[in-house]
Amino acid sequence: MRRRLAVLVIAVAAALSPSVRGQAHRPQRIVSLIPAATEMLFAIGAGADVVGVSSFDRFPVEATTRPRVGALLDPDTERILSLRPTLVVVYDTQTELRTQLDRAAIPTFRYRHGSVADIYDTIRSLGAAVDRAQNAEAVVVRMRADIAAVTASVQGRRVPTLFVVGRDPGTLQHVYVAGGAGFLNELVELAGGSNVFGDIARQALEVSTEQLLARRPDVIVELWPDGSLDQRMRESERAAWNALSALPAVKAHRIIEITDDRLAIPGPRLPAGIRLLAAALHP
């Protein structure tokens, strides 16, 4: 459960406020500590300039050939500096790393996660920072159109949905779910779901079995973005829900495991992730 939450901390967090400090010309050696930002850079045509990526980058394939430089909690400053970057994309909360990069006179792009609309702003800001503004706008236009097509296909449909982001394996202990204030709640709504904990203005919260029974979801969606769920584990984890056999979702066997990281990484592939979720909610 902790690894699932760690992945989500990296993929889905608070609010977005990107800014660039340093040079105005197009960087030629970019290090990205954020998978979503790495995908954005490749999508807007700056992939050739990326010389270092985070420990969690898996897409696109070309990104996996770049040197790994750590992530949110364990950035390898020496390795980053050895790559002689002209721009480093960092989390806004990485204050120590930003201080060290400032001392080395290396510009940074400060990133924080947010809503779907904020993702568009990030793509535009990153595009401006690396002299790919037109490409960035084209990516945003395409994403908007793709998401609009999904929402149109589920217009008028709302399935009461429980979105589980973490729990102790094999049990219903320490169940963490998406609340109504976060990015995941927005994804549920866009895909034609109604978050059963959407009235609680928090990104994620731990809930009891009593609360789960009271909310009566018709569908349970569990996010496993690290791809750790094989068939044996899938059967075991589904069986754990039998302890709450009174839930409509359990009675109807509507427990959906999402292992595709397109739904967890707030980047250019997000429309495909929303389409995946919509298909699961409305088969």
Q: How many DSSP H or I helices?
A: 11
Report the principal-axis shape: globular
Helix content: 25-40%
Q: What's the CATH class of the largest domain, please?
A: Alpha Beta
- The ordered string of helix (H) and strand (E) elements is HEEHEHEHEHHEEHEEHEHHEH
Largest sheet: 6 strands, mixed
Domain count: the total is 2
Overall pLDDT score = 89
Strand content: 15-25%
Separation of termini? 28 Å
Q: Give me the oligomer status.
A: single chain
Instruction: Tell me the structural class.
Output: alpha/beta
Q: What CATH architecture of the largest domain would you give?
A: 3-Layer(aba) Sandwich
- The CATH topology annotation of the largest domain reads as Rossmann fold
**Can you identify the CATH superfamily of the largest domain?**
Nitrogenase molybdenum iron protein domain
Low-pLDDT runs of 5+ residues are 5-19, 21-25
